[in-house]
Known about the structure:
The protein has 202 residues and is an alpha+beta fold. It has helices spanning 16-22, 34-42, 61-67, 149-156, 162-171, 177-190, 198-201, and strands at residues 30-33, 53-57, 71-75, 83-84, 97-102, 110-118, 121-123, 131-133, 138-141, 144-147. Strands 1, 2, 3, 4, 5, 6, 7 and 8 form an eight-stranded mixed beta sheet that branches. Helix 2 packs parallel to helix 5 (162-171).
Amino acid sequence: MPSPEIPYERWAPLTVAEVESLFADASFTWGLAGGYAVEQFLGRSIRAHGDIDVVVFRDEQLLLQSWLTNWHLFAADPPGTLRPWVSGEELRFGIHDIWGHREGMQEWQLQIMLLEAAGANWFSRRDQRIGGERTDLIVNYNGFPCIRIEVQLFYKARNIRPKDELDFQACLPLLDSTARMWLHDQLHLLHPAGHPWLAQLA
């Protein structure tokens, strides 16, 4: 994703502690996502990370924008490109990635992904049949708000990269029966012809 300012591969991501400090007392719901959410669930580090991901509900995006003063924020619109996220602009459905860096920095520091919700429920942008109660999507793992682990693994299951397989195998023994069943059922719904993880979740 080329930026008007910074090459897309140039990252100096915030640490988990810095993210927690950045969003302390925020007026909106947020949570860690990606590999760091996996590691908070596991309670240990299992691999290196090139960036850091945070999720925020789409209907709270302007609260996020107002919170990140002294940041330069860019929307992935259209996918594969970045453009400045204009103050007060509500990003429409289909635009779900925001990249940012603090003023004066020459590296990307944070990626934010927008979660979809309607009223009291969240739903997957991939298939609106998949979702649940909004208040159940962000949970506490080892003291940090994170996207629920089975939902994170669901998003990783679409195009499995080596790091996604590593994350899944590390989490699998710790998934409770409810999480296993949810992930199994959603993968079966989207992949009726089969998915590499289904047998292990059965």
